[in-house]
Specification:
By secondary structure, this protein is of the alpha+beta class. The chain folds into 3 domains: 96 residues, Beta Barrel (OB fold (Dihydrolipoamide Acetyltransferase, E2P)); 45 residues, Dihydrolipoamide Transferase, CATH 4.10.320; 207 residues, Chloramphenicol Acetyltransferase, CATH 3.30.559. Helix content is 26%, strand content 26%. It is built from 8 helices and 16 strands. The strands form 4 sheets. The protein has a 6-stranded mixed beta sheet, sandwiched between helices.
């Protein structure tokens, strides 16, 4: 029986996805779980996996096509089986912006008009000033490009670079979150000696982020409001603790999810985090990798940042921003002493939690870090 491959939707607001490339071609034998294609959504670049064994057939969208979510882009069929008839009659994939027909009034580029004339002076000035003549509008007789045209073009500000879909969505999401969610912030400085000791105990394969995920996930079990979501009109208590880790990728940040982090072992958390980071930077994430997060940790300590305040990722209720561990002189038993200090900033949505609830959660996280109560 034929199985359809559809453009996945990662969230309610997503309308389309773009085919980046097909990793298999029509007629190839494929196995369940095998990567079929790379797609780009408004959230991330990821891979579509086969949901059954069979043969790839009836491919309806090519690389570069923008396809509505839920639309079939290909089929998995049994050997010798034909894809359903409706696959050929379905609506074609949406065109990308570069595939739209040119309006009749659109100007013809210089690359398409080799007959355009350039004066010797203009050609020399363009080389000296680094001006692209194909982007210069000539004002001389017959559209000839003059030295004055080149000089004027050189003074123009550079055209703004187009945002990638990830960068565009990041700008939209942070603006939406900042302007709609009533953020409040709690800051806590802690002695990170216990955290450093725990990392030495487990070896360099375990990072500070791994330890933080383990501790925070277990604290979230005790504070379900911090693991909740805002639905737009009510609070939803999430049954699972799925910790998102902010990972820097080209043109933005991706929240990769470690599911059920409260019950996962430290070794499992570390392995999952490393796998997610590698695939995120390579553009090889899958839909489940970036959906379902209930709480986010953003660690910029490795970049030498002392402290920062992060913006909440809707519909989550909170995000924990972690700075670097730095030696500071602090009072210990009434005497100055040097201790490794870590600064954490908790951003919370006041529609979901109040100050006392957030403070109690941050207190438990801090105490667990100080005493290194790690599983």
């Amino acid at each position: 029986m034929a199985v359809s491959i559809v453009m996945p939707a990662l969230e309610m607001a997503q309308e389309t996805g773009k085919i980046i490339s097909w990793l298999k071609k029509e007629g190839d034998s494929i196995a369940k779980g095998e990567a079929l294609a790379e797609i780009e959504t408004d959230k991330v670049v990821l891979e579509i996996e086969a949901t059954a064994d069979g043969v790839l057939a009836g491919v309806k969208a090519a690389a570069g096509d923008v396809v509505p979510v839920g639309q079939t882009i290909a089929w998995i069929v049994a050997p010798g089986e034909q894809p359903p008839v409706e696959a050929a009659s379905a609506a074609p994939a949406a065109r990308t912006m570069t595939e739209q027909p040119r309006p009749a009034s659109a100007p013809v580029s210089r690359q398409e008009a080799p007959e355009a004339r350039v004066s010797p002076k203009a050609r020399r000035m363009a080389k000296e000033l680094g001006v692209d003549l194909t982007k210069v509008q000539g004002t001389g007789p017959g559209g000839t490009i003059s030295g004055e045209d080149v000089e004027a073009a050189a003074k123009l500000p550079p055209a703004p670079a187009a945002l990638s879909s990830i960068a565009r969505l990041m700008a939209e999401r942070t603006t939406q979150s900042w302007t709609t969610a009533p953020h409040f912030f709690l800051v806590r400085e802690i002695d990170a000696s216990g955290l450093l000791t725990a990392r030495e105990k487990h070896g360099k394969a375990i990072t500070h982020t791994d330890l933080l995920v383990a501790l925070v996930a277990r604290a979230l079990v005790k504070h379900p409001k911090m693991n909740a979501s805002w639905t737009g009109s009510a609070i939803r208590l999430n049954p699972n603790v799925n910790v998102s880790i902010a990972i820097a990728v080209k043109d933005g940040v991706v929240g990769a999810v470690i599911p059920n982090a409260d019950t996962a072992s430290l070794a499992d958390i570390s392995a999952k985090r490393q796998d997610l980071a590698e695939r995120a930077r390579a553009g090889r994430l899958h839909p489940p990798d970036v959906t379902g997060g209930t709480f986010t940790i953003s660690n910029l300590g490795m970049f030498g940042v002392d402290a920062f305040s992060a913006i909440i990722t809707p519909p989550q209720a909170a995000v924990l921003a972690v700075g670097r561990i730095a030696d500071r002189v602090v009072p210990v038993n009434g005497q100055p002493a040097i201790r490794p200090i870590l600064t954490m900033t908790l951003s919370s949505d006041h529609r979901v939690v109040d100050g006392a609830q957030a403070a109690a959660f941050l207190k438990d996280v801090a105490e667990a870090l100080i005493s290194a109560q790690l599983l």
